[in-house]
Amino acid sequence: xxxxxxxxxxxxxLDVRHDTFTISRWLDAAPGAVFAAFADSGVRRxxxxxxxxxxxxxxxxxxxxxxxxxxxFSAMGSAPERLEYRSRYLDIVPDRRIVFGYESTVDxxxxxxxxxxxLLAGDNGSTLLEWTEQVAFLTRTxxxxxxxxxxxxxxxxxxxxxxxxLDPEPGxxxxxxxxxxxxx
Length: 184
Hints:
The protein is an alpha+beta fold. The chain has helices at residues 3-6, 31-39, 41-47, 147-166, and strands at 7-8, 17-27, 53-59, 66-73, 81-93, 97-106, 109-122, 127-137, 140-141. Strand 7 and strand 8 form a beta hairpin. Helix 2 (31-39) packs across helix 3 (41-47). The protein is globular and about 50 Å long. The termini are far apart. 18% of the residues are buried.
C-alpha cells in the first residue's frame, strides 16, 4: 500500500492532531562543535538525511534561509514513496539556540508541519542538547496512532547520527559530572 493510500486526511480540515516532544542528549563535544554540525552543510549531511535513494539537498544556514531535500524511499513489498522536506530558520543564536519550522511531504501530500527549538548548553568538553518539537499532523497514516512514535523515533535516530558525526570513535557515553545546565 502506498503512502497516499494509507494516509487519511479528513475532508473538513478540522481534524489536526497536535503533539509536542522533547529529546535531551548529552554529546561529547563543545557547544560550538555541536552548533557547527547544524551549520556546516558537509557535516550536516553526515547526520541529517532523508531515507531512500537519489537524495538531493540544499542548505542555507541563516535566519530566513533553510533546507530543502527530497529522495525516493522503497520498502520491501511497497511502492516507492517520494519524500520531501522543506525548512526555514527563524532564529539563530550562535552556540546556544536554533529555531526552525519545517514541513514533511510524502508523495505530494503534506503530512505534518513542525516548529523545532534546539537548545545547547555546556562547556568545552560536552553539550546538553534539547530538541523540542511542536508538530501538527495534517494527514494521518491509518488511524494516526503510529505517527508521533514514528517522528520521535526518526528524530532519535538523527540524534544518534549527530553524536556519531561529532565523535566517529564508538564507545560508551558518560554524562559529565557536575550540575546540569539550565536551558530554559
